[in-house]
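Q: What residues go here?
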């Protein structure tokens, strides 16, 4: 059946060479490296049970890596198919130009088997395969393993470069969108500030009540402009890890009540929105955090909720409760629920990333800043679309201080 010479067996019987490849994989104790000659060769082997064989080996602690000459679309399809039955198998593609007539199997870097592909158009592995060459020479096995490692690392590097390139494209797109949004956000408050200042200067006959009304509008837009500048500055500090956060004992009930009152004062009277705060059991719940920063987080969540509820009117509710963590630590949990339009499914997974926004208003920075602040104090923040009602629910948790007081 074969000729033996200097640790090499030439296997002329196709079925014997394929059986030898299966036997070698079964005997592996540490590692299997497999380079298929083509994507067709992989599919033929899959049909006669190589994936089941790989699964059994992986269950015994063997690490298996596979290289297939294929383009991106083909390898993506193969990986998706394989992951359904064998998610632990590591598969990568090599350039499709490397497709050839030789498949390589290396086991534990001590044994190797080369199987020739005689006719790649055949559907049956036994008809497609040709000669086999087995070797138990460690230097030969190591030389093939070296080729495999080189191709594997080359592909790994290519994938990382491709991921980096794609991320750069996404970042460039997001930054362009941010600049467009920021330009709009800057113009929106600047125009009434300049316009109304001109009115006050030119009209000397205006009564005091009218002057005060215009000054209120100017002040409101100036604050909006200040918040935009503060957001950009905060993001810069977060990314440079220079954002300073104080730690003081804070009554969360008071922070929420004051923020709700401030936002209620800003809501136009013709907008039918009810903004309510429902404290739980009249508890005073405290946390150790920066009061100004906690106010900023709650303000961000509430203004977002109000903005997306404005169109049809409705309710924005905020609740505060104390829950037990898995351990002895208690958590202060703040929940903001609205009856607005909900979160676009396209951006939901990356909602807390920079510049993420589907709105014509807002820079997409507020939630990124809020997440950074909450996590800096050991808390968590999350969001979900409401299933039964319209709208969305945002929530965050912070470790409670030990001084929770009943009133």
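A:
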């Amino acid at each position: 059946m074969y000729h033996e010479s200097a640790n090499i067996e030439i296997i002329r019987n196709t079925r014997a060479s394929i059986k030898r490849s299966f036997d070698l994989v079964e005997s592996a104790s540490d590692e299997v490296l497999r380079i298929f000659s083509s994507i067709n060769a992989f599919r033929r082997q899959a049909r006669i049970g190589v994936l089941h064989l790989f699964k059994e080996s992986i269950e015994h602690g063997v690490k298996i890596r596979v290289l297939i000459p294929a383009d991106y679309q083909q390898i993506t399809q193969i990986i998706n198919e394989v992951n359904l039955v064998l998610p632990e198998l590591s598969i990568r593609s090599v350039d499709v130009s490397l497709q050839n007539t030789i498949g390589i199997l290396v086991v534990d870097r001590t044994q190797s088997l080369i199987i020739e592909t005689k006719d790649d158009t055949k559907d049956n592995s036994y008809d497609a395969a040709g000669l086999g060459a087995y070797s138990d020479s460690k230097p030969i096995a190591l030389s093939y393993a070296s080729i495999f490692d080189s191709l594997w690392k080359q592909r790994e590097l290519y994938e990382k470069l491709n991921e980096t390139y794609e991320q750069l494209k996404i970042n460039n797109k997001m930054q362009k969108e941010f600049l467009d949004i920021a330009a709009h956000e800057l113009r929106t408050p600047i125009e009434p500030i300049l316009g109304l200042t001109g009115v006050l200067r030119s009209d000397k006959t205006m009564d005091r009540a009218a002057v005060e009304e215009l000054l209120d509008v100017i002040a409101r837009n100036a604050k909006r402009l200040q918040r935009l500048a503060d957001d950009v500055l905060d993001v810069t500090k977060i990314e440079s890890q220079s954002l300073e956060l104080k730690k003081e004992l804070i009554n969360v009930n008071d922070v929420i009540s004051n923020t709700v009152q401030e936002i209620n004062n800003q809501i136009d009277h013709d907008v039918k929105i009810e903004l309510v705060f429902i404290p739980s059991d009249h508890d005073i719940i405290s946390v150790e955090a920066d009061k100004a920063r906690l106010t900023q987080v709650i303000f961000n969540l509430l203004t977002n909720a109000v903005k997306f509820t404005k169109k049809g009117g409705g309710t924005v509710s905020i609740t505060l409760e104390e829950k037990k963590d898995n351990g002895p630590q208690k958590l202060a949990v703040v929940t903001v629920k609205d009856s607005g339009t909900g979160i676009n499914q396209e951006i939901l997974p990356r909602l807390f990333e920079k510049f993420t926004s589907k709105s014509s208003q807002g820079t997409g920075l507020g939630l990124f800043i809020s997440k950074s602040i909450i996590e800096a104090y050991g808390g968590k923040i999350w969001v979900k679309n409401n299933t039964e009602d319209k709208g969305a629910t945002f929530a965050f948790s912070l470790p409670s201080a030990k001084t929770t007081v009943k009133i």
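A: Context that may help when evaluating the design: The mean pLDDT is 84. The chain is about 45% helix and 25% strand.
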